[in-house]
Amino acid sequence: MVINSHSSATPASLRKTHRGMILSRVQSEPGISRAELARMCGFSEMAATRIVRELLAAGIIQESRVSDQDKAKKKHVGRPKTGLHIVKDGLFAVGITVSAYHSDVSICDADGKLHASSSPENVAFDTVADAARAYASALRDLIETSGIDVSRIVGVGVALSGRTLPDRAEIVTSDYFGWANDGGQFCREIQKIINLPVEIENISNALAIAEMRFGGARDVSDFALIHAATFVGAGVVSDNRLVRGAAGVSGLLGHFRAEDRPLTCVCGRNDCLNLSATGFGLLSRLGKLDHRAFDTSKLSFYATALLNALDDPKAADLVSEAGQNLAPALDSVAKLLGPKKIILSGYLGAHDCYFNAVRQALTDHFDYGPHGSFEIVQGTIPSVEAAALLALHAFCYSDQLDYDRFALSSDRNKGAQHG
Description:
Elements: H1 11-28, H2 34-41, H3 45-57, E1 61-65, H4 68-74, E2 82-86, E3 92-97, E4 104-109, E5 114-118, H5 128-146, E6 153-160, E7 163-165, E8 170-174, E9 179-180, H6 185-193, E10 198-202, H7 203-214, E11 223-228, E12 232-238, E13 241-242, H8 279-285, H9 299-310, H10 316-337, E14 341-345, H11 346-349, H12 352-366, E15 375-378, H13 383-395, H14 403-418
Parallel strand pairs: 3-6, 6-10, 11-14, 14-15
Antiparallel strand pairs: 1-2, 3-4, 4-5, 7-8, 8-9, 11-12, 12-13
Helix pairs in contact: 1-3, 2-3, 5-6, 7-13, 8-9, 10-12
GO molecular function: N-acylmannosamine kinase activity
Organism: Roseobacter fucihabitans
Protein name: N-acetylmannosamine kinase
């Protein structure tokens, strides 16, 4: 299980790392024992027990008797065994998915289940600051009406189409929204309204993280997630780690070379995959565009028109054609990276018609089959949940967990209940 480690090897930092490791194991393997935790994490049972006691006291995990079914499986003998579980409402994470399709703010519990969400309307993407304030205000309203304990929120996740620097909480560039080099302004505006740490990621990477921890790639160390909507991008995981590239640039699948089209990509070329295997190319083939170059002022139109096309049986052949155009690129990805799975996500990518066309083209032209080297599957995590799950991954199941804050919160709550 992935741990985001940003700490030096001091006793305090090791303690934080070990907490993250133990929480990850408890979440992924409910009912695990202290002895099993120690063995799997590679430290003494005494050390595991100390950290478990801390997490129990903070109300983040709980202990319960092993079920009769589990007893039969494990053939326990002697006194009843106890196992550890995540307290689902012990912690929460909140998220902002920046999208022209369905702008979403969301809350998930500690086990990654969606607790609440809403879709703010009429978000203006003209400036970074205005968009950030609109989303943050909508998220604040959702938190206030959700009924959750605000003191138990670990942080905010932000997922959007664009290149980001998570360590610096910056948007480097987003051709989709027309933003560039925001210097961390988007995240700062959110923190002014929601006083919590913020983790920002490219939507493909955010979905890959969510699938890796909570979705269809939980037991897979090497996979690629392809996010196809208006444009197409990829999140790549190798040996349980996101591949970011030397300069933080990776996953630019949409700029793979394909056939020439009478369209212009955001990069200025006319032969990018973004023009033949995506919503933008599909809308052109359907005669829905009166322009050839991508226009950031038409984001809402692209989104609405694509969703309508996906619901229109008359567009099925062209949706399938777009899926077929993606298949050669996926064959190259499979041969280059050797993933165990390729996950198709996004409003277009996970659509049955598009997905089935991709799979059929791989079968017909690239020898894809049930005994091949990789499996192609539809994504299990919708974009509405990706950002909150990103925050949960970054601020709960890692060494960034603010344990002292939640321990203090738990003590205060106990005092309020029993004092």
